[in-house]
Amino acid sequence: MSKSFSKWLLALMLLFVLVLAACSGGDDSEEGTGDTDTDAKTEEEATEEESGSEDGIYSIDDFSPDKTDEGEPIDGGNLNFGLVSDTVFEGVLNYNFYEGNPDAEVMKFFNESLLYYDNNFNYTQDGPAEWEIDEAGTTVTIKIRDNVNWHDGEPVKAEDLAFAYEVIGHPEYTGVRYYAVEDVVGMDEYKAGETDTIEGLEIVDEKTIKITFKEPNPSLLASGMWTYPLAKHIYEDIPIEKMPEDDATRVNPIGYGPFVVDTIVPGESVTYTAYEDYWQGAPKLDSITLKVVAPETVANALETGEIDVVDSFPTDQYPDVEQKLTNVEFLGQIDTAYTYIGFKLGKWVPDDPDKPDGAGSVEMDPDAKMADVNLRRAMWYAVDNDAVGERFYNGLRWAGSTLIIPAFPDYHDDTIETPSYDPEEAKRILDEAGYEDTDGDGFRETPDGEELVIGFASMSGGDTAEPIANYYIQAWEQVGLKVELVDGRLMEFNQFYDRVEADDPAIDIYQAAWGTGYDVDQRGLYGRTAAYNYTRYASEKNDELLAAGASEAAMDIEYRKDIYRQWQELMVEEVPLFPTLYRSVLVPVNNRVTGWSIQTEWNDAFHEVGVTQEDPVLP
Amino acid sequence: MWKFIVRRLLVTFPQIVLLSILVFVMAQFMPGDALTGQVDPNVSPEIKQQIRERLGLNNPWYVQYTDWIGGAVTGDFGQSFRFKMPVTDLIEQRIYNTFWLSLVTLIFMYIIAVPLGIISGRYNDTWLDQTITGYTYLGFATPLFIFALVMLWIFGYQFGWFPTSGSVAPGLSPGSWDYVWSKFQHLLLPALSMALIGTVSTVQYLRSEIVDTKQRDFIITARAKGASESRVYNRHILRNSVLPIAAFFGWEITGLISGTIFIERIFGYPGMGALFLESVLMRDYSVVTALVLLFGVAAILGALLSDIILSIVDPRIRIK
Fold first, then answer.
1. Distance between A21 CA and the closest CA of chain B, angstroms
2. N or C: more exposed end of chain B, with fewer CB within 10 A?
3. Does B44 contact A at CB distance below 8 Å?
4. What is the CATH classification number for the domain harbouring B167?
């Protein structure tokens, strides 16, 4: 009796393992696309945010990105920060070596960029260093402020920044950041091991460095430079390939940010104490405690005051807890990411056939199933993305319009007409383009009279992946298009990208997402030579605009805006892909916290953060 | 006895080799690798390719396998791509957490199981027995992860008696009394949750063994000879009934290092189970293969231990 019971129990457990694995796989996959910090449209902030919505539909416009202070901060106090993650943080606590996002969340309290950003991700003069650029637009002089010191008292020097470039460009460097330094003059020779010094780096004096780049590029002034020095007096004697695992990175990480790392419990928590000599003045708080909180328990932890603030709240839980969590204020803004549906229009041709992963370019296939722009546009008209956002994300995601998202307020153009839900229009376009149902099976055939079955690839993950994919398939069915999931099911994350990258002929359209990062330059995603140009779309107009957007002339912001406006229009005309959903990011902050913000221009000014009382406010 | 152990070990060795090959080949079949997840427009496929080349991910599996097994024999399982540190050090960080959690769980399990099993078996079919049996059925029916979540919610958040995540409170220095105490506090709730559910099969085993043994001829003989009831139970019935439990003990030891995925996940407890799950999802192969090998070896040794314990308590089954 009991034997068979434990057998059943075992079977049941195995089943749960699978279920659990599947679930968390999805969480990773959906968000694994780059930076999470975001920016908001400041012109239409609403201050009242606890209004709640009776039909459970919310709008990001009702959230403020800045905390409303409720009282004067006390002297000192401890803040509890929750790092929402279903994995541990890896503990590679140096900007030059880390890869996982959780580590970035841990680092931001004790280290920071030498240059600060404004809300358009342009560099400002307000950070630990000031910069200027020469007439030619290729040489940037960075001058570190005199009072910027490492936590051990050593000044942050120009040679520390040069050292970071030398380590990242070194042949023995094991990380992925070479892209950040490759445009410096002389870097290729250095990387190849031909020289020991980098020609484009010139240390002017202890605090000043000149960096010369190969070409003028407007992105240099908008998050395009590597601005994280590496403490030379500490790392100097460590072999480069051992740096990421050394105690200097994992156990006693150093920075020049407002807080100093006190203790680290690997993977789960970190305590920080105030850095009294911080260059912007001593922090108001005495200390910060960071701990990893699972997404399943984050709402409880906020309710009990165990944590005061988190890096990012799981938005799907928001409708369940917004009434209950009266002790926190939810900040919100537009996330730097978008979901999209892409059409496969060609394939990737490597320059050297023996190196399929090497450099190459995109080749459009005029016979591709999705080659007709009318078909693509009709498919955009056929789907109601606002309904998807309301139904599955309670309005915290909403229909996207252009490919440069509103998180880039300078560049996003909301005046461009984009297709919105109109099935009649979709049908009309398809009729005109000759897609008609000739054999009476309820689905349209191609203009040549052949059967049209479109293969749709979509990732598994979370509760909503399947219903959303099904919704799209049904919406297209409404206008007479037969769309089927590739292999009849959703794909696991790794498999999905493997097949999309390899231009699997079974995939005609796919749903994926991009994190936009801070750089408005689109060449890395949509250029002719970009391997990440998964739709394999290329055109001369596109090449021209993308090149113009990154040219010397685009150092003029008005010119650059105009170029990217034209590019957004081009993408709406050509529809190689269309954004389906824009996203929001929510950050709950306990009412006792003052001075918190999630805007980019706030630049993680944790030294300004205070608390109004010793203990957290409870509901 | 020694001959038996040596013979068992000899059989064990090819098992482990086979297991390691199997693990390695299966890992190769998983779609994607540690770099697939880096769908970052900044990191070009060329850079990824260079890293793959340097990590040897492009070599055929048997070359990778020989490299790996060569290191593994000397205790070097390579570098974790995700954590950027040696796998051996990474496992060392986690294995203590899991070991203590499992040990405390094991102790709780036996503390609960032995008295309940004995009461239930001795007074079978009374209301007391029915209550205990009821509890065991409830235990069988309750999924561990739901039970753990409920425990966390009630005792962690509602009453606030226990810490709700992590293995130790932040900010304590290792080695201090506060540190040890905090570690113990963090263990209690997950261990208790696991023990309350995990113990029910042992209770059932013990009960049915006792009920079974009660009717044996030698018990009737013992009673006929005038042995007192407590002597009958303590000397005759119990000794025979704990056999299967002793046999299971070896298996339980295996659990000491493999940890449990649910509990560690729900309580945010960084142990081996959580490490394993994360590594599979992130395709951190060097960690996955090292862990599976470790779990495999533990399982094989656990079985060996079970056999040895059994042969000590029950001389009849010793292999000649």
1. 7
2. C
3. yes
4. 1.10.3720.10
- Provide the sign of the torsion angle of the four alpha carbons A152, A155, A159, A161, taken in this order: positive
pLDDT digits (tens, 9 = 90+) for A16-41: 554 444 444 333 333 333 333 333 33
- Does residue A52 carry a pLDDT above 70? no
Residue A288, phi then psi, degrees to nearest 5: -130, 140
Q: For chain B, what is the domain count?
A: 1
Q: List beta partners, residue A142.
A: A131, A209
A contacts of B31 (beta carbons < 8 Å) = 492, 494-495, 498
- Which residues of chain A are within 8 Å of residue B281 when distances are taken between CB atoms? 21, 24-25, 28
What are residue A337's DSSP bridge partners? Answer: A515
For residue B170, which residues of chain A lie inside 8 Å, CB to CB?
Answer: 263, 265, 268-271, 289-291
- Could you say which of B31, B165, B167 has the minimum Cβ distance to residue A492? B31
Residues of A in contact with B172 (CB under 8 A): 263
Kindly tell me if the per-residue pLDDT of A203 is higher than 90. yes
Q: Does any domain span residue B81?
A: no
Query: From CA B273, how far away is CA B277, in angstroms rounded?
Result: 6
Per the structure, the complete domain to which residue B281 belongs is given by 88-317
User: What is the pLDDT of chain A when averaged over all its residues?
Assistant: 86
What is the nearest CA distance from B224 to chain A, expressed in angstroms? 31
d(CA B198, CA B106): 9
Residue B22 lies in a domain: no
Put simply, the answer to whether B84 touches A292 (Cβ < 8 Å) is no
What pLDDT does residue A30 have? Answer: 37
Single-letter amino acid code for the residue at B275: L
Kindly report the number of other CB atoms within 10 A of residue B287's CB atom: 26
Identify the residue with better confidence: A120 or B39.
A120
Interface contact B268, partner A, CB < 8 A: yes
Quote the ipTM score: 0.78
A2–chain B nearest CA distance, Å: 6
pLDDT per position as a tens digit, B260-316:
777 888 888 888 888 888 888 888 888 888 888 888 888 888 887 887 777 777 766
Q: Which helix (H) or strand (E) holds A476?
A: helix A465-478
Question: From CA A382, how far away is CA A474, in angstroms rounded?
Answer: 10
Residue in A615, A516, A532 with CA at minimum distance from that of residue A33? A516
Q: Which residue carries 């440069």 as its tokens? A: A404
Statement: residue A476 has pLDDT above 90: yes
Q: Which residues of A touch B40 (CB under 8 A)?
A: 33-34, 176, 515
Q: What is the pLDDT of residues A112-150, one digit of tens each?
A: 999 999 888 889 999 999 999 988 888 999 999 999 999
Are residues A24 and B277, on separate chains, in Cβ contact within 8 Å?
A: yes
- Does residue B152 sit within a domain? yes
Do the domain assignments include residue B154? yes
